[in-house]
Amino acid sequence: MADTDAQTVATRWLQDLSVACAKDDASAFQALLLPDGVYRDLLCLSWDFRSLSGREAVDRFLRDDNRLARAGMHAFAIDASTGFGPPFFYPVPGAPPTVRGIQLSFTFKLQSPPAVAKGLARLMQDPQDGRYKAFTLFTSLHDLIGHEEIVGAPAIPLSSTWRQIREAKVSKIESDPTVLIVGAAQNGLLTAARLGQMGIPALVIEREAQVGDSWRQRYDSLKLHTYSRICSFLYESYPQNFPQYMPKDRLADALEAYVKSQDLVVWTSAALLPTPTYDDKTGRWTVVVMREGKEVHLRPKHIVMATGFAGEANIPSWPGKETFKGVVYHSGVHPGGHHFEGKNVVVVGAGQSAADICMDFVRCGAENITMVQRSATCVTSLSIVENNFYTHWPEARSVEDSDFAVNAFPQSLLLRLAAGGGTAMEKEADKEMHEGLRKAGFQLTWGQEYGKGEIGMFGILLQRFGGYWLDQGCAQNIASGRIALKQGQEIARYDEDGLVFADGSKLAADVVVLATGYKGIRHTASKIFGKDLIDKTTQVWGLDDEGETRGMYRPSGHPGLWYAVGGFNHARFYSRHLGLQILAKELDLKA
Ligand SMILES: Cc1cc2nc3c(=O)[nH]c(=O)nc-3n(C[C@H](O)[C@H](O)[C@H](O)COP(=O)(O)OP(=O)(O)OC[C@H]3O[C@@H](n4cnc5c(N)ncnc54)[C@H](O)[C@@H]3O)c2cc1C
Q1: Are 583 and 147 in contact (CB under 8 A)?
Q2: 571 and which of 12, 151, 190, 323 could share a cystine (Cβ 3.0–4.6 Å)?
Q3: 154 part of a folded domain
Q4: Pseudo-torsion of CA 564, 567, 573, 575, nearest 10°?
């Protein structure tokens, strides 16, 4: 089939989808997918994030509550304005070169709620009948008509100055915010920027004295793990001369500058006090914020918890700590390896923080460094992940278009493909590194998807947000013995000089670093809202039965309470969907 035919095939497929929707024909709709195709929908057909695997599940979803008919999807049109251009053929990974898929971007409208939406489909030929059908179909609510996100330069009325407009806005937001965002790092600030463009008054509160302090307080050599383009903010990119891997202080300053550049309203030295109460009748919270030592009472309709996925440090309570003559601290407050040159260091834990901190000790000349690994860890070279990211967020395309395409790929399918061969390829590429680790006694894992196969680093990240590291030299140092390993033994207690293990063995230490993880955002939230309320909310992170991330930028299980967590790409992309869900509540739009 000639390349020019991608447009013809895609147009025909979209036409068929349009007809199926016009006739409210769920059978015809699902028949446009491959038998094992996945349909991911964000807010077009329900006020939630859904991923339906296989035609049967799609059919049920469309018929439930008469969804397809109620939504009234119409006005489908190919969208060539994205960085992807018109529909195009792409090689199918792992398939012979003659097998090609077709990717198309499209727009459409909804009757209920009146809205515009965007879609992306990846078509492949069905071996049964030779027709192109969707391997993945993605639909995503974009704008509610009449409440569109402001795009581009705002108009400043001739009668007012920008300062007057700003003062009026600040006064409105400070006295009666519709949304209170707790936490002014990337998730909180990007959400605030998005809500601002959607016309939703949002106040951000931050417990630290300066925005960015939570990064500034970390050890000197800390950098982001992925390159700056992927970690860029919403509506603006970093200056061209920024470092490729953002050092923590540069990021802290960039976050602070973002408050000004996006004209956000942020209170620093401000914390939400326990215990906010929610009135079902008015749909408002009653909250008290301690701002610079003074209580401020507010009645927002929504609270967005953006206090960080990790939350409070998890500190194991082994006995004998008082007898230990050395220093013990959690990885979250690692002051930098230069404080411990020539010392014996034990790092407890074998995840990303443990690997980063071990490497910091290597660079700073600690005498002996030992990593304590309790179970098994997934280790993947940073270069593999980088290549993956470069492919998905290429320079040639806008970050926004890339975010859309990445999120158009259902996570359930990502796990399926990883388990079906992707992880094996990753393992092959890292074979030598893994061999070195194994010889040193290190235990490796690639996780499991429901017992179906190994899901690799991304899968483990999606399921646990821990239990892996992106390697930047730590593996080599373990293989060479520069970083020693203590594997598979529980720590029983501290003694004067270090740690004693369950089998009676000992490790001498001047410094013990507890890279033992965090208690999670629900723990933080429980301390503010009370355990009873938070126990009723969904888990945050990990995947639900459909492969959607639990609790992240979607209904929490409690009205007016939301969790904004995740990496930079999540904040950029899903802040829109959080804004739309909040608008839907404000406009009393039914699911
Ligand atoms: C070394 C390292 C490298 C990383 N690299 C990447 C990367 O390359 N790409 C990527 O996407 N992610 C990366 N991450 C992960 C992720 O982006 C960060 O964990 C990020 O900090 C999450 O942002 P956040 O806004 O959710 O929360 P946080 O950055 O944790 O910020 C939470 C904010 O809330 C404030 N706060 C907390 N409690 C309260 C309260 N009760 N009241 C008021 N304010 C409160 C805190 O002071 C803080 O400012 C990296 C993380 C680390 C540690």
Answers
A1: yes
A2: 190
A3: no
A4: 20
Q: How far is the CA of 346 from the centre of ligand 1 (A)?
A: 25
The pLDDT assigned to 247 comes to 97
The whole domain housing 32 covers: 6-144
pLDDT of residue 451: 67
pLDDT at 94: 75
Using the mean position of ligand 1's atoms as its centre, give its distance from the Cα of residue 44 in Å: 30
Structure tokens belonging to residue 73: 């999807």
Specify whether 437 is located in the same domain as 323.
yes
Q: Select from 307, 309, 529, 549 the residue to mutate for testing ligand 1; criterion: most ligand atoms less than 8 Å from CB.
A: 307
For residue 150, being part of any structural domain is answered with no
Q: Both 372 and 504 in a single domain?
A: yes
Q: Are 447 and 460 in contact (CB under 8 A)?
A: yes
- Flag whether 232 is in a domain: yes
**Residue at token pair 């904004």:** 564
What are 162's two structure tokens?
């920008």
- Cα of 291 vs centre of ligand 1, distance in Å, is 21
Q: Of the candidates 464, 488, 517, which is a domain's last residue?
A: 517
**Nearest-angstrom CA–CA distance, 413 and 425:** 17
- Cα torsion for 357, 305, 540, 513, to the nearest 10°? 20
pLDDT at position 2 is 46
C-alpha span between 410 and 548 (Å, rounded): 8
Q: Where are the beta strands (DSSP E) in 404-481?
A: 468-471
Phi, psi at residue 177, to the nearest 5°?
-70, 135
What is the whole-number distance in angstroms between the Cα of residue 341 and the centre of ligand 1? 29
Where does a domain end: 144, 173, 201? 144
pLDDT at 449: 75
My answer on whether 213 and 330 are in the same domain is no
The preferred substitution site among 203, 207, 519 for testing ligand 1, maximizing ligand atoms within 8 Å of CB, is 207
Give yes or no: residues 204 and 261 share one domain.
Answer: yes
Counting from 1 in the atom list of ligand 1, the atom nearest the Cα of 565 is 26
Give the CATH number of the domain where residue 475 resides.
Answer: 3.50.50.60
Give the chain's domain count.
3
Residue 149 within a domain: no
Distance of CA 510 to the CA centre of its chain: 37
Of 223, 224, 298, 529, the one to substitute when testing ligand 1's pocket (max ligand atoms within 8 A of C-beta) is: 224
Q: Within this chain, do residues 459 and 540 fall inside the same structural domain, yes or no?
A: no
| Residue 341 and residue 290 share a domain | no
Task: Give the pLDDT score at 464.
Answer: 87
Residues 492 and 355 in one domain: yes
Residue whose CA lies nearest to ligand 1 atom number 45: 183
Query: In the chain, which residues have pLDDT < 50?
Result: 1-3
Best CA proximity match to 529, nearest among 559, 572, 549: 559
Nearest-atom index, ligand 1, CA of 208: 47
For the whole prediction, is pTM greater than 0.85?
yes
Domain identity same for 168 and 57: no
